[in-house]
Specification:
This protein is an alpha/beta fold. 37% of the residues lie in helices and 23% in strands. 56% of the residues are buried. Bound molecules: fructose -6-phosphate. The site of fructose -6-phosphate has 15 residues, from helix 10 and helix 17.
């Protein structure tokens, strides 16, 4: 989703802004722009449709000088992707420029009023309305920029992170936030602004996360001053960001997605570090220790999440119900927030989010909290909005995920959910000590087993070439593997644009089997010990209709191997841990098919990494 970058200091702003935009490319966007105030006091705005490279080409013969500037990558919401709709937007008089993430919901009525006052618009965006509104207050009531921003934002309904430049004050950037992330990096005599910490870490590790309804005045000489929308002064909390530069670069891999797939063994070790004893005899999550009563005596758990995180939630449901014998519901956060859910005291809501900024998940948390539920977050991005608005939580510690298609965050989430289930089961005595040790010791073996799976990368790459013709794919799995099938299908459609559906294997004969013919590839995750015979029958039904089956099986499974067209083997593990192994070849399959089809795997069309609008 849209990305914001800003700089003020003694260096030339433009190269820093462009580099920052590149660091935010992973969020997904369709146009980009920069605005600087140069030494002659001119406020320039340059924008281009397409990628940051297109913007750089456009800047080639322009005056991009200036030590203060703001920049933006836009993911279209109001109006098509084009230069006019790209940010920054000028105010009518050309004295202000503004960038904006989020959505101004009442932009139409504000625009109407501004038109009545004689304002004209060159774009279709809600953002241009905001910059004109600020200018309207500034001029009409002779206000300084801060007061004009306060007056304008008081009129706005919606979500925003904004940054504004004023030609008449080349020493100041004003930024504000409501429901859309904004971080300020504190350098040595220089300041940086960004939607998340990734563009900041090569310059500074000291960061202020701006909170909702706060406005930051970033002044070249006096530093950062934070006030509320109403003008009360706030003392900002400076956080230390531990992210290192290597973690946000490709490290020799062709794509971030491939790097992140290969990082998974190390990532899930990081998720388990300090939480499981090295000998696998105990597991502790600090949240469960601190709020034991809430977790142990919950009448029900409700998992809220979106997309891939929702798939992890489905696996979490099976884990918690099987190990802890507590009922669990899994809701799409976007549905939960509008369904008037029956939720309250005694319920534990588990919010799962990689980015920690997903608007629907945030809204679901707020609703659950307002009704008295206890909210626990499973989040990757440290210091993100979701991490800060839950009662407690566990970070998954897999490092920044740059590829838009989620991979290592998924396995990290499943790892934390597994530890959570085992931890609660231990406290509730719904698991014996022997079972707990066995489960934890097997969980500790997963990173090595994942490395075994990754060795099949070349074989999966060559198998993928066979399937670039396909327009459809079906993914099947049962029990713990059903969400794996859903996630495999989502990965494929996201990055290769091949239509793919995931089903519980036994549902085939209730409809989808009509689709099977010699052209239809069907991926079957067939590792379940408990339901082995049933899945075998499902495969026979597909083969009887000439479907082409790729089966993910346990090593040494001669029965299914003989029956199907292609086999991917996994090392043996416990049924509840197969999702961690089985999702890896499905990620690789999607990745290689997309690469063979020449798609942009790291930034697939129309997708955003962090979905900060509804
Ligand atoms: C899929 C994907 C999305 C996200 C979803 C939720 O690869 O990345 O489906 O899982 O947008 O995002 P988070 O987890 O950041 O809340």
């Amino acid at each position: 989703m849209c990305g914001i970058v800003g700089y003020i200091g003694s260096k030339q702003a433009c190269p820093i802004l462009i580099k920052g935009l590149r660091r935010l490319e992973y969020r997904g966007y369709d146009s980009a722009g920069v605005s600087m105030i140069n030494d002659r006091g001119e406020l320039n705005v340059f924008k281009a449709k397409g990628k940051v490279d297109d913007l750089v080409a456009f800047l080639d013969d322009k005056d991009v000088s200036g030590t203060i500037g703001i920049a933006h990558t836009r993911w279209a919401t109001h109006g098509v992707p084009c230069r006019e709709n790209a940010h920054p937007h000028y105010s009518s008089s050309g004295t202000l420029s503004l960038i904006h993430n989020g959505i101004i919901e009442n932009y139409a009525s504000l625009k109407e009023k501004l038109i009545e006052h004689g304002y004209t618009f060159v774009s279709e965006t809600d953002t241009e309305v905001l910059v004109q509104l600020i200018e309207y207050y500034k001029i009409t009531y002779q206000l300084d920029l801060l007061s004009a921003v306060q007056r304008a934002l008081a009129q706005v309904i919606g979500a925003y992170a904004i940054a504004v430049l004023d030609r008449s004050n080349p020493d100041e950037i004003i930024a504000a936030r409501k429901s859309s992330p904004l971080a300020i990096g504190l350098g040595d005599g220089e300041f940086f602004l960004a939607s998340d910490a990734t563009p900041l870490v090569e310059y500074t590790h000291k960061v202020i996360y701006v909170d909702d309804d706060e406005i930051a005045v970033i002044n070249r000489h006096s530093g950062v001053n934070i006030v509320t929308l109403q003008g009360q002064s706030v003392s900002p909390e400076v956080s230390e960001v531990t992210l290192d530069l290597g973690a946000i670069e490709k490290g020799g891999y062709e794509h971030f997605m491939l790097k992140e797939i290969f990082e998974q063994p190390e990532c899930i070790l990081n998720s388990m570090r300090g939480r499981i004893n090295p000998d696998g005899t105990n597991v502790h999550l600090s949240s469960v220790i601190d709020y034991g009563d809430k977790f142990i005596n919950a009448r029900r758990y409700v998992i809220v999440a979106c997309g891939t995180s929702w798939h992890a939630g489905l696996i979490g449901k099976s884990l918690i119900e099987n190990f802890c014998r507590i009922p669990v519901e899994v809701a799409y956060a976007s549905e939960f927030r509008y369904n008037d859910p029956v939720i309250g005291e005694g319920d534990v809501v588990i919010a799962i989010s990689q980015s920690g900024e997903t608007a629907d998940t945030l809204a679901a948390i707020e609703l659950a909290r307002s009704r008295g539920a206890f909210v626990y977050g499973i989040v990757n991005s440290v210091g993100s909005s979701i991490a800060r608005c839950t009662h407690t939580g566990s970070y998954i510690h897999v490092g920044p995920e740059i590829g838009v298609a989620s991979t290592k965050a998924f396995t990290g989430q499943v790892t934390v959910l597994t530890m959570l289930a085992l931890c609660i089961a231990k406290e509730r005595n719904t698991i014996t000590e022997e079972q707990l040790h066995e489960a934890l010791q097997e969980l500790l073996r997963i990173p090595d087993k994942m490395r075994e799976v990754l060795k099949q990368n070349d074989a999966i790459a060559s198998l993928s070439r066979t399937f670039t013709y396909a327009h459809n794919f079906i993914y099947l799995g049962r029990g713990y593997n059903y969400p794996v099938a859903l996630e495999g299908a989502l990965k494929l459609k996201e990055i290769s644009y091949i239509h793919a559906e995931g089903y519980p294997a036994a549902e085939m004969k209730h409809g989808p089997i009509a689709l099977i013919d010699a052209e239809m590839p069907v991926v079957v995750v067939a590792t379940n010990k408990a339901l082995y015979e049933k899945v075998l029958s499902n495969i026979q039904e597909i083969k009887a209709r000439q479907g082409r089956v790729i089966a993910v099986v346990v090593k040494g499974d001669d029965t299914i191997s003989k029956l199907v067209d292609y086999v991917i083997e996994l090392p043996e593990t416990a049924d509840f841990l197969y999702p961690l192994l089985a999702s890896v070849p499905l990620q690789l399959l999607a990745y290689h098919i997309a690469v063979c089809k020449g798609k942009n795997v790291d930034q697939p069309r129309n997708l955003a990494k962090s979905v900060t609008v509804e």
